[in-house]
Design a protein that fits this description.
Number of strands: 5
CATH architecture of one domain: 3-Layer(aba) Sandwich
CATH topology of one domain: SMI1/KNR4-like
Largest sheet: 5 strands, antiparallel
Number of helices: 20
Mean pLDDT: 88
Shape: globular
Order of helices and strands: HHHHHHHHHHHHHHHHHHEHEEEEH
Distance between the termini: 75 Å
Strand content: under 5%
CATH superfamily of one domain: SMI1/KNR4-like
Helix content: 55-70%
Low-confidence stretches: none
Length: about 425
């Protein structure tokens, strides 16, 4: 028996050593299972397996192990709750993450990171101000209890504020404080650069990106930031666009959200797939066959994707969408006809400004349209009336229809990018 125990101890120690050096090493799983076969009460080995699976992106397997540990309700319970909370946050399962974050704080209310993650989960679920305030409190708690970690706490807050669409005026002071606390924290510096960009401080963003690129020429994030800072600076100033107008339209915020939505599965492609799954029969019967890709090649990305999903709807069928006004999807041919008419006689179509970019997507068949404006907003446009913002993006309009038809809408509640 003592020999078997010594083998078990050896395997257990080796498994932990391997994890510390190479968290994804496949040998860890073999060693942990061997220990558990002899000593099934070793909850630590279950935690190790969960962490190992998580490192290898086997999220479902990791979740299963963490839940098994939680079920034992022993000294590893708090660790398992925190690990599962972070896992659920990483896969955007925010409702479950919030439940776990509350439990984690109840289990260990003195740990600042538990409060940080609770604030993050609350903001991710749409309670922005409360969540952001709780992150402030978590940093203050870190300063009192673990002052050597204050730079880490501030950097963690910056990351979560960026992910949660926090406004630049809230983000920038935290990023600057993070850099002051830890000048070599490259991540905080990178987030500060993006915050500058979101505040339309192009020169500051460019200067910071150049400094970080001198330190690390292979920093792809800073190379992207530098490119965008110069691009937007040229767009606003060299083309003599009024900066106030560009900022009011949300140019950079739209670009930021597009990238975030694409990464998190909130983009137009995902929205149309979700809509397909819940379309009522009366809506589906009005939709035309998809447009030929060649017929839409010169159109914008969102318009092209919509038309290759379905080439519009039959005239007069907008009522099937069950919105306040009966707008229907336009066909590719109708789009081309509208473009040609405007080009032929701009004065006869004053609502379609020559110095504006637009893509008409829907019509009420009575002269009003839903159109994508220059910066991606979906607006209601009609001659003689001011534009009215209908949705921040076309994807948002489609997700609203998914929700209206009883489908799952994965978007968190979040601040509007633009006002009507």
């Amino acid at each position: 028996m003592s020999e078997r125990l010594s083998y078990s101890d050896r395997d257990r120690n080796l498994a932990w050593d391997l994890y510390d050096a190479q968290p994804g090493n496949e040998k860890i799983e073999e060693l942990a299972h061997r220990v558990l076969a002899d000593e099934p009460w070793r909850t630590g080995m279950l935690m190790l397996l969960g962490d190992h699976y998580n490192a290898r992106r086997r999220k479902d397997d990791a979740r299963e192990k963490y839940e098994e540990v939680m079920g034992r309700r022993d000294q590893y319970f708090a660790n398992a709750v925190a690990a599962l909370r972070d896992l659920e946050l990483s896969v955007d399962n925010y409702a479950r993450a919030l439940e776990l974050a509350i439990t984690a704080v109840e289990e260990d209310p003195e740990l600042w990171f538990n409060h940080m993650q609770l604030g993050h989960a609350m903001a991710s679920c749409g309670d922005f101000e409360t969540g952001w305030d709780l992150m402030d409190e978590a940093v203050a708690m870190c300063g009192r209890t673990m002052p050597d970690m204050i730079g880490t706490a501030l950097a963690a807050q910056v990351t979560r504020l960026v992910e949660g669409f926090a406004p630049p005026e809230r983000l920038i002071p935290i990023a600057e404080a993070a850099m002051e606390a830890d000048p070599v924290n490259v991540w905080a510096a990178e987030m500060l650069g993006w915050a500058y960009l979101l505040q339309y401080r192009f020169d500051a963003a460019e200067a910071l990106a150049l400094r970080l690129l001198r330190e690390d020429p292979h920093n792809e994030l800073m190379a992207t930031l530098l490119s965008l800072a110069r691009k937007y600076h040229a767009t606003v100033f060299e083309n003599e666009l009024p900066p106030a107008r560009v900022r009011a339209a949300g140019l950079i915020e739209m670009a930021w959200r597009h990238q975030s939505d694409l990464a998190r599965g909130f983009d137009l492609e995902s929205a149309l797939d979700a809509l397909d799954a819940v379309l009522p029969a009366d809506v589906r019967s009005t939709l035309r066959e998809p447009a030929d890709a060649a017929a839409t090649a010169e159109m914008s990305r969102d318009l092209r994707r919509t038309l290759t999903w379905h080439d519009g709807q039959a005239s007069g069928t907008g009522v099937v969408w069950r919105t306040d006004e009966a707008f229907r999807l336009m066909t590719a041919a109708e789009r081309r006809e509208l473009d040609a008419a405007v080009d032929a006689d701009p004065a006869a179509h004053p609502e379609w400004s020559e110095d504006d970019m637009w893509d008409a997507v829907m019509t009420d068949d009575r002269g009003a349209h839903l159109t994508l404006s220059a910066f991606g907003r979906l607006v209601r446009r009609e001659r003689g009336r001011d534009d009215v913002v209908v949705a921040d993006t076309l994807a948002d309009w489609v997700w609203d229809r998914v929700a209206a038809f009883g489908g799952h809408d994965p978007r968190p509640r979040r601040p509007a990018l633009v006002s009507a």
